[in-house]
Amino acid sequence: GAVVSQHPSWVICKSGTSVKIECRSLDFQATTMFWYRQFPKQSLMLMATSNEGSKATYEQGVEKDKFLINHASLTLSTLTVTSAHPEDSSFYICSAQTTSIYTGELFFGEGSRLTVL
Amino acid sequence: GNSVTQMEGPVTLSEEAFLTINCTYTATGYPSLFWYVQYPGEGLQLLLKATKADDKGSNKGFEATYRKETTSFHLEKGSVQVSDSAVYFCALLPYSGAGSYQLTFGKGTKLSVIP
Q: For residue B9, how many other CB atoms are within 10 A of its CB?
């Protein structure tokens, strides 16, 4: 099946620094990628929808200047958490939709756990 | 708006026990319904899906039937194994002629199966 890879899996950073998380579709082209945030014991919260070559669409309440999303190619989207603070510590997951006929299926990355000290 | 409600966990079962994880939804129109599974340390992966009323999705011994009259999509397995220990998410994809791919997830139910 389709594979989506995230990197890094774990990252620890100091407060005030920026962290970049990559999401790659390894064996298919993804015109649309989604970024989610998962809080402990809670569901996935959609942060933004990323379309290749255009600006991301952010969900209400998500700061677009803090969570920068770039989808420069059909196989790569990046999420940059700028000036990270401890409250940004979370599990971030990306997913990708293939360019083929819509099947309703999304392929998820392994997730990236961010800890801000 | 759209929403998905799952039974709260954690659920702990002995091996070979019968599993039911309840899921109900609220949505307009005819959404597609999914169950995703997240094994420890891994990302989510699709377990099964159903795209219209009365459809039954099945995979790896798990099954769920899309019940429009009760707005439910309960996950069942007749005999669980230790390897089924994971977090299970029910999800909804609202119908959109424009092709919306934004899933709404339930909070997840953690299943632990003990030998």
A: 16
d(CA A70, CA A80): 8
Torsional sign, CA A38, A39, A40, A44: negative
Q: Rounded CA gap, A61 and A87, in Å?
A: 15
Task: Check A43 against B32: CB less than 8 A apart.
Answer: no
CA distance B17 to chain A (A): 24
Tell me which residue in A41, A49, A110 faces B102 most closely, judged by beta carbons: A49
pLDDT band at B29; cut points 50, 70, 90: confident
User: Does B101 contact A93 at a Cβ distance shorter than 8 Å?
Assistant: no
CA distance B70 to chain A (A): 22
Do B90 and B35 form a contact (C-beta atoms < 8 A)? yes
What are the tens digits of pLDDT across the range A82-105? Answer: 999 999 999 999 998 775 544 556
Percent of chain A with pLDDT over 70: 91
Neighbouring residues of A75: CB distance < 8 A, sequence distance ≥ 6: A24, A25, A26, A29, A30
